[in-house]
Amino acid sequence: MNNVIFNQPLSDPFPNHIREVFFKAKCLYAKADVERAFDQIAVGINEKLANSNPIFLCVVVGGIVPLGNLLPRLDFPLEVDYIHATRYEEGLEGREVKWVAKPRCSLKNRTVVLVDDILDRGVTLAEIIHYCESQSPEKVYSTVLVDKQNARLPEGLQQADFCGLTVENHYVFGYGMDYKGYLRNAPGIYMVAAEHDSPK
Fold first, then answer.
1. Contact indicator for 92, 40 with CB cutoff of 8 Å
2. Quick one: average pLDDT of 43-59?
3. Across residues 157-165, what is the average pLDDT?
4. Nearest to 129 by CA among 152, 104, 151, 112
5. 87 secondary structure, DSSP code
6. What is the pTM (predicted TM-score) of this model?
7. At 18, is the secondary structure helix, strand, or coil?
8. Cross-strand pairs, 83
9. Structural domain 29-88+95-193, CATH architecture
10. 172-173 and 188-191 strand pairing
11. For residue 33, how many other CB atoms are within 10 A of its CB?
12. What per-residue confidence (pLDDT) applies to 119?
């Protein structure tokens, strides 16, 4: 963990707390591991959807980094839009789903590919899929970088169509996944230390 971004001293106490969280976290997947996972996801999508003229919907905010890494690996015509529904709002505990933005483009008769950072309890993605299906698409697929095992709620999406990595039921950050709104830019997938793995 020698990323210079996290080595600079700051006067604001909260970013210093974030630095402490980063340095005490355990690296589960290094950057090279994540890059291989994106390669794997792209192979599956290229094989299945290359002739479907799909719309990729970035699930904001967490899906920005995964989609940005995934798009250059896809070698077929596609469109991009975004959708934003959240249960967290920079906290650690999931709450009721709140809609922030819905796609501007029509989903009717289109193949839709949702891209998010992580599938944990699955409630937000299930709600987003339900909305997309109400717009009469041809098909809706879900894509996540990380699947958090043993975290699903009964009403949540149980499995993504395309997935790169798995983690156990711990709080993780990096590559789009945040800790209290920070650390989405961490250069790997990290597990938060037990002392920080709770709301404050």
1. no
2. 97
3. 97
4. 112
5. S
6. 0.88
7. helix
8. 59
9. 3-Layer(aba) Sandwich (3.40)
10. antiparallel
11. 14
12. 96
